[in-house]
Amino acid sequence: MGVAIRAAGASDRDLVVRLLDIAFQDDPVSRWIFPGDEYFRATHHKLMAAFTDIVLADGRIDLTEDGTACALWLPTPAQEHTEGEGEDESDGPAQMRASIDPANERIELVARLTEDIHPAGRAHEYLWMIGVSPDRQGEGLGTALIGSVLDRCDREGLPTYLEASSARSRGLYERLGFTLLGRPLDLPDGPQMWPMWREPRN
User: Fold this and answer.
1) Is the alpha carbon torsion for 153, 88, 164, 5 positive or negative?
2) Alpha helices of the chain — where are they, by DSSP H?
3) Which of 65, 71, 92, 183 has its CA 20 to 30 A from that of 113?
4) Cα–Cα dist 74/32, whole Å
């Protein structure tokens, strides 16, 4: 299947935010962070906007030409956690919570928990999120978006990492060569997330 893909720019921000908002409307983790339909509709898009802004600044957003699917990637350098770093690194989750909904502890908690399990020893590409419009899911758009980056990572000898937020997405990633890294992350009174790693293929 030929899927036209381009890099999103600042002018695509609102499109990407809307796409992620609708793509994750039934996602178990999103629903855990923002319980209840009314609260979800009023607030979830703010988290998607925060993610989009971070990746537009520091990473890359791949977008299908028809605007129905996108993937958010962050290049992650090798780094070792050392004493004194944790306090500075914890500012991001707290700031995100403050900017989206200060009363919602889960916004900060999920960011801290995923930060804690993120592998630090090797440089890798981090697939932060991938969203496909609900009426286009199952057509191979997600596979095409991920595959183009995996091909490059294979050529460059670069591993990739992600956290799957649903059993369905976990199955897709397994088919693309990702394997579970350590134990699943159990969100308090909530769903699981699966940290997954893929070594480059020769």
Assistant:
1) negative
2) 13-23, 28-33, 37-58, 85-89, 91-100, 105-117, 141-156, 167-175
3) 71
4) 24
